[in-house]
Specification:
alpha+beta; Aminopeptidase; 4 helices; 7 strands; about 30% strand
Amino acid sequence: MTSKPDLWTIRPARERDTDILADIYLRVRRMTFLWVDPGKFHSEDFAIHTKGERVFVCEDRNGTIAGFMALWEPDDFIHMLYILPAFQGRGAGKALLAALPEWPKRHYRLKCLVKNTRAIAFYRGLGFAIIGDGSSPEGDYKDMQFGGDQSL
């Protein structure tokens, strides 16, 4: 792992985190997905979209939540990885991925919107390969899979 592990604490989400995580989900989607009407994003989306998923929280040294990741475990599917802009580019996303069970041996998958070029570059830089294409209400996406046996 190339990020500085002492900068980040990764832990399971707690009930009391819900409002903060919902706010991160709402804010980052509205700031990132500029091609989608921001009125289509709501605070309630977080609870609905993460139902049944394992949610990991990333905190800095001060206990400030920098972001989160949601995993649909039956399919090793990374459903969400959202980092607040102030923490992007500082290793929080890498730290969340490194906390996945059996990382980097498992072949985790995710979908990334084509217009989210920064995220596609992030995942490709970590060893995710594009394995397919699809379409969603937010736009076209790339199916991506981690190659495994690589380290951050």
